[in-house]
Amino acid sequence: MLVRLMYASRASASIDQEELQSLLRQCKSANPRQGVTGVLCFSSGIFMQVLEGGRMAVNQLYNKIVSDPRHTDVVLLDYAEIRERRFAGWSMGQVNLQRLNPAILLKYSETATLDPYAVSGQASMALFEELVATASIMGERG
């Protein structure tokens, strides 16, 4: 059974671009072995991520994230059984914030800032769907 999980968290310490790329490399290496795909967005110390895959693999990965000391204030935004993956092309894609049109953020929230704590899980998922549709995701596919 496939599931899609979306969560948000705050970085417990400052994360620079090099650390973020290292984290993405780890995901891209480990996730395919577990059958997990997804997309990550990181902005102003906030992670927002969608994970897709088998229920057990996604749940185990989420529990690992919750207990990871690099994350604080972990909040489950959405969890659903799905028939097919929406982010199947990415072992772990990353939102390209340089290509992100502020109007897309304003469409789903009060300000043009990424803040999943201030919007519903449905709005956050709709934002990710639009990011895929507008090719604002970067990283190697597969």
From TrEMBL:
- Taxonomic superkingdom: Bacteria
Name of the protein in question: BLUF domain-containing protein
Q: Which InterPro entries match?
A: Acylphosphatase-like_dom_sf (IPR036046), BLUF_domain (IPR007024)
The record's annotation in SMART domains points to:
BLUF
Chain ranges of the BLUF domain: 2-93
| Signal sequence range | none
This protein's species is Aquincola tertiaricarbonis
